[in-house]
Amino acid sequence: MKYTLNLSSEFCAAHSIRGYEGRCARVHGHNYKISVEIRAKHLNELGFVIDYFDVKAILDKNMKLIDHYNINEIKPFDTVNPTAENIAAWFYKNLSSDLNDERVVVFAVMLWETEDFFVRYTEHE
């Protein structure tokens, strides 16, 4: 892949980690930051990897499903622990199903719970 596009956004949500012995077992919230890395073999006819606004609209559609909610109450997190790792994978799979085509792929999703802690999920390495 020759070209890489990155887009970031933020959302707020609460969660708790089931089966965890510690303070994260209680419901608490984060101001999450998410970054999506998209790669393409070549540019489209306009010279874009993909239109930022198209990516932003799809990311926003997915963020609205969990923004300002208790993530534990949203499928699949009603049975899957809403860890940063699992949330990043959820975004990756949702975004990939909407954006991937023969030219463009969602390469990675990075999710920050705090300024100092983030995870990166990809299926390409």
Name the features:
4 strands, 4-stranded antiparallel β-sheet, elongated, 2 helices, 31% strand, 22% helix, alpha+beta, Tetrahydropterin Synthase, Chain A, 125 residues, single chain
Describe the structure.
There is one protein chain. The chain has helices at 52-63, 84-99, and strands at 3-15, 28-40, 104-112, 118-121. With 125 residues, the protein is an alpha+beta fold. The protein has a single domain (3-121), classed as Tetrahydropterin Synthase, Chain A, CATH 3.30.479.10. A four-stranded antiparallel β-sheet has the order 1-2-3-4, with helices on one face. Strand 3 (104-112) and strand 4 (118-121) form a beta hairpin.
Largest sheet properties: 4 strands, antiparallel
Class per helix and strand makeup: alpha+beta
Count every beta strand, where a strand is a DSSP E run of 2 or more residues.
Answer: 4
The secondary-structure element order is EEHHEE
Give me a quick take on this structure:
The protein has helices spanning 52-63, 84-99, and strands at 3-15, 28-40, 104-112, 118-121. It is an alpha+beta fold. The two termini are 13 Å apart.
Would you spell out the secondary-structure blueprint of this structure?
Elements lengths: L2 E13 L12 E13 L11 H12 L20 H16 L4 E9 L5 E4 L4
Antiparallel strand pairs: 1-2, 2-3, 3-4
